[in-house]
Amino acid sequence: GIIANPNCSTIQMMVALKPIYDAVGITRVNVCTYQAVSGTGKPAMDELAKQTAALLNGRPVESSVYPKQIAFNVLPHIDVFEDNGYTKEEMKMVWETKKIMEDDNIAVNPTAVRVPVFYGHSEAIHIETRDKLTAEDARKLLAEFEGIELLDNHVDGGYPTAVTEASGTDPVYVGRVREDISHPNGLNLWVVADNVRKGAALNSVQIAEILVENYL
Predict the structure, then answer these.
(1) Which of 32, 77, 121, 183 is catalytic?
(2) What domains can be seen in the chain, in order of their start residue?
């Protein structure tokens, strides 16, 4: 058989949502991703570095990897566009969430955005749960779940970011946990992870470890 390694943006979301899904169920996910250029590869990282240097020195920029300037900009476009107006990256999050959760009924509405960061994907996730879950109880579930680091203090800087916490580390970091004031069963989360480590390398290693331990 073939073991599929999920998309980097999907896997960090799944880690954050798994304890909540198991506890109270999730009926709907709205997510906006803010994805680092390393997800496109080294040429994209080089392009961001060159464009940044050019702009800081008052020179014009050239774009070859991305369709528009990425330095000091955000692009609401990752991968090719599908017929329904979503990009392939966004549709991967839909397909993979249903597959990983083994739940064809979960609704997923993603917007994937490329941002001028070298490493680390960030996600603003808004979920609707089947049963009511308070923010306090959600924090307890998240804090106890393996692979998650909860950083959720209501003070300046009391939240994780891709650059200051996630980059170069393995955990999925979660903060800004709060109840949705517009929906009785809604919760909001901020989730960051190193897309190269958790999104690719580490997840592949963990899949291999499970195979060796349980099936080989």
Answers:
(1) 121
(2) 8-36+74-214 (3.30.360.10)
pLDDT tens track for 136-175? 999 999 999 999 999 999 999 999 999 999 999 999 999 9
Regarding pTM above 0.70, the answer is yes
Active site residue 8: yes
Q: How far apart are CA 105 and CA 125, in angstroms?
A: 18
Q: Clarify whether 121 is annotated catalytic.
A: yes
List 8, 32, 77, 126, catalytic entry: 8
Per-residue pLDDT band for 208 (boundaries 50, 70, 90) equals: very low
DSSP string, 95-134: HHHHHHHT-TT-EEEEEEEE-S-SS-EEEEEEEEESS---
